[in-house]
Write a structure and sequence with these properties.
361 residues; TIM Barrel; DNA polymerase, domain 1; 12 helices; alpha/beta; binds iron/sulfur cluster; 34% helix
């Protein structure tokens, strides 16, 4: 199988050009075509001579993803894609429009090994890691679509740009650390895509060694931790990795991260009816985070069909939020986006795999 060109860092493209007997400036031309003009076929590398384009096309793949399905929310603010990769595996990528943001939620693995019982992706287990290029390609796909001429298909006027990336799709980014960080270095490279690291958020379920390693990375990427429970007893059930990295260790690592980076950490907390949403639990959460440079993002759970985990009712959710705020914790409730299109991670994939009917693109 051909290698994906987006798997190469700039230095690797430079080495390749050297090997191919090309002048050094060709690396920059390739890089700019890929990451400024989002070329997705060798024919679009128009600044290169034809012969070189031909040789590159023999070695490399320029577009690894085929659109298997797309669902668009009725307000057009959320577009959820199911992509088929060359090996037949499928991944989900979601593009979300906010007031001034165009944000893509990318997957980092095919499936996930973390086994959170409320999550559609977790139910299927892990198939494999995505390569750096496969992670990069999801952002490029959206950047290319956003940069295309206006055709009324977006809630804002196109062409426009991608402003944010969240690593919050299928998979646990810390379990695919090297490929994820290679992808982030490619996407933040100023010679090409050049997205500011502060516009990127990596969301982890709480892999402690990964958090400690991330604290020392030069790129100022934001950290979000999927907490979902304020006690080990409950978190062991909702987020099984907690048995390996209990709250005390997780909080130590987060404190260390804040100390080294001086950056605020977001804690994601999916409110589940009757499970983690009473006021006593809000108090325990406030105790856990008290004095920390932290923000709590409450998320009404996206229910997986047939699952016992259901979203909290809105009054309960509001009371939980108010209790945190009264206790001095910075907290907000995330808008429930894409609820009419099953935007919870893994849900579209599961539905397609199960062969149920969806709107084909
Ligand atoms: S919630 Fe995230 S970490 Fe947990 S199983 Fe789903 S994808 Fe994996």
């Amino acid at each position: 199988m051909k290698k994906l060109i987006h798997d190469l860092a700039f230095e690797e493209i430079s080495d390749l050009m050297k090997e191919m007997g090309e002048p050094a400036y060709r690396a920059e031309q390739v890089w700019q075509a890929l990451y400024r003009r989002f070329a997705n076929s060798p024919d679009e590398l128009t600044t290169l001579p034809k012969g070189l384009r031909q040789r590159l096309s023999e070695k490399f793949l320029f577009q690894p993803m085929e659109e298997a399905a797309v669902q668009i929310s009725s307000d057009m603010y959320t577009r959820k894609y199911l992509f088929r990769l060359p090996d037949g595996n499928t991944i989900e990528t979601v593009l979300m429009f906010y007031e001034r943001r165009r944000s893509v939620c990318v997957s980092t693995q095919v499936g996930c090994a973390m086994g959170c019982p409320f999550c559609a992706t977790g139910m299927g287990g892990l198939r494999r890691n995505l390569s750096a290029g496969e992670i990069v390609a999801q952002a490029l796909y959206m950047a290319r679509w956003l940069g295309s001429p206006d055709d009324g298909s977006a809630p804002v006027k196109k062409p426009t740009t991608l402003t944010h990336i969240v690593l919050m799709g299928m998979g646990e980014p810390m379990a695919n650390y090297n490929n994820v960080w290679k992808a982030l270095r490619i996407l933040t490279d100023k010679r090409g895509f050049g997205l500011g690291a502060r516009r990127i958020t990596l969301s982890t379920v709480g892999i402690v060694p990964g958090i400690r390693k991330m604290a020392k990375e030069p790129l100022q990427v934001n950290l979000a931790v999927s907490l979902h429970a304020p006690t080990d007893r409950l978190r062991n059930k909702l987020v099984p990795i907690n048995r390996r990295y209990p709250l005390s260790e997780l909080m130590d690592a987060v404190r260390e991260y804040i100390r080294l980076t001086n950056r605020r950490v977001t804690f994601e907390y999916a409110l589940m009816r009757g499970i983690n949403d009473d006021l006593a639990q809000a108090d325990l959460l406030a105790n856990l985070l008290s004095g920390m440079l932290a923000h709590v993002n409450l998320i009404p759970l996206n229910p997986v069909p047939g699952s016992p985990f259901q979203p909290s009712n809105p009054d309960r959710a509001r009371a939980f939020l108010e209790r945190l705020q009264k206790r001095g914790i910075s907290a907000t409730m995330r808008l429930r986006r894409g609820i009419d299109i099953e935007a919870g991670c893994g849900q579209l994939r599961r539905r397609v795999i199960e062969g149920m009917e969806i709107s084909k693109h």
